[in-house]
Amino acid sequence: HTPDRHAIRGSYVTFCANPFTTPDALVLEEDGLIIMEHGRITQCGPYATLSPLLGDNTPLTHYPDCLISAGFIDAHVHYPQISAIASWGEQLLPWLEQYIFPTEAEFADVDVARRTARLFLSELLRNGTTTAAVYCTVHPQSVDAFFEESARLGTRMIAGKVLMDRNCPPNLQDTAQSGYDQSAALIARWHGRDRQLYAVTPRFAITSTPEQLELAGTLFQHTPGLYMQTHLAENLDEIAAVRSLFPNRSSYLDVYAKAGLDGPRAIFGHAIHMAEHDFAHCHHSGCTLAHCPTSNLFLGSGAFALFDALKPTRPVHVALGTDVGAGTSLSLLATMGEAYKVSLMAGNTRLSAAQALWLATAGAARALHLHDHIGLIAPGMEADLCVMDPAATPLMAQRSARCTSLAERLFTLMVLGDDRAIRATWANGRLVHARAQTQADAAVH
Ligand code: GUN
Ligand code: FE
């Protein structure tokens, strides 16, 4: 048969519009067929219509009773921090000092980096995540280790070396010049190779000198398609420290903007404590905000004002981030569930299941300017798929049996689901994760 051609049959969901602005934006194909070749979706639609295209020699995988989505996109996560997840008792700045810096220091050893990158990427796939914007550590080898594993798997990843030239332990410090040189070398090696994309990654304003931010801005502005990722307005003590380090800047965001670290493909994690003029600046310059609900709850940072950010008169691009190790789960399903709860805490607009799924797939792709490549199930898109099982656990089976609509089924998945609800993950047209069925599962099915 044709090499690299495969088809999947099952119910699938995708979008025909933005569910924040258009009702009925979510599209369900009840008995669908998705045909993939050389890493792309070539055809998709009703099984009854498309099945003649299969011929005799296209391998077909059937997922009855599942719900298939485009692969999930995590817009903010730290791979070195998976070993420090669930560290007790501190808010942002002491949490970084006590738990995170010592953990990241271990990545001076490239074997630690390789082992952790392998574990992290396999965990992403177990959770249905096929694209992520990932912080490595200050060590350039931590980036090589990560991209090598992602290239091997065929996943589309955005990642970069953390830049830190002050206010951190000496063994984690670079300089404005060494950080620039190392980033430039990594960009030359990885940016645009296979499906890998580079992000210039100043950790945050506290740990970079103005000189380092300036050089990061130069790199970001002068390399086509490059990303920039950093943290913004997460915690009140952090904001006070930034104010005293940069007394001449009009806001935290202005520190980055003055260095050229804003614009399309600039991804800011958290953005909890934002003034109206900050949101307006993000809208006009085309920045993206990563909403990290489990992290913001875990560190007691605050509630992101999602519907303020999305205000229809000046909508800002928003995507979801797990922010592990401050985040408590790599599951975008769990993160959607927490984003729903936070939407209730932050105001009286309730996030719908369709909107949550949009933020984890097509909306994230749009926010990351990757919507020509990923985020939808449609011909021409890269074949990254996530197969969800609404009856993955006895409890989910019980609840899902009572669902009468697609929105209800999705909501059940995001409130109760996690890695157990991901039956399979496909990346670049290939099966990269299939969940082993336990005896308890088998008894239910
Ligand atoms: N701000 C600066 N560094 C970090 C980090 O590693 N995690 C979080 N949540 N916030 C940060
Ligand atoms: Fe973070």
Question: What attributes characterize this protein structure?
Answer:
445 residues; alpha/beta; Urease, subunit C, domain 1; TIM Barrel; 2 domains; 38% helix; globular; binds guanine; binds fe (iii) ion
Notes on the protein architecture:
With 445 residues, the protein is α/β, with parallel strands linked by helices. The chain folds into two domains: 5-70 and 376-444, Urease, subunit C, domain 1; 72-330, Alpha-Beta Barrel (TIM Barrel). The protein has 17 helices and 16 strands. The mean pLDDT is 97. It binds guanine (GUN) and fe (iii) ion.
Layout: helices, strands, pairs:
Layout: E1 5-15, E2 26-37, E3 40-46, H1 47-50, E4 60-70, E5 72-78, H2 92-105, H3 110-126, E6 129-135, H4 140-153, E7 156-160, E8 162-163, H5 176-190, E9 196-202, H6 210-222, E10 227-232, H7 236-245, H8 252-258, E11 266-270, H9 276-285, E12 288-291, H10 293-298, H11 306-309, E13 317-320, H12 332-346, H13 353-360, H14 362-367, E14 385-388, H15 394-400, H16 406-416, E15 422-427, E16 430-434, H17 439-444
Parallel strand pairs: 1-4, 5-6, 6-7, 7-9, 8-9, 9-10, 10-11, 11-12, 12-13
Antiparallel strand pairs: 1-2, 2-3, 4-14, 14-15, 15-16
Helix pairs in contact: 3-4, 4-5, 5-6, 12-13, 12-16, 15-16
Bound molecules: guanine and fe (iii) ion.
Residues 78, 92, 96, 100, 203-204, 231, 234, 295, 323, 326 line the site of guanine (GUN).
Task: Give start-end ranges of low-pLDDT stretches.
Answer: none
Profile the largest sheet: 9 strands, parallel
| Share of β-strand residues | 15-25%
- Tell me the CATH superfamily of the largest domain: Metal-dependent hydrolases
Number of domain modules: 2
Q: Estimate percent helicity.
A: 25-40%
The CATH topology of the largest domain turns out to be TIM Barrel
Class computed from helices, strands and strand pairing: alpha/beta
Q: Which hetero compounds are present in the coordinates?
A: guanine, fe (iii) ion
CATH architecture of the largest domain: Alpha-Beta Barrel
CATH class of the largest domain: Alpha Beta
End-to-end separation: 32 Å
Radius of gyration (Å): 21 Å
- SS element count, helices: 17
Count of strand segments:
16
Shape: globular
Rounded mean pLDDT is: 97
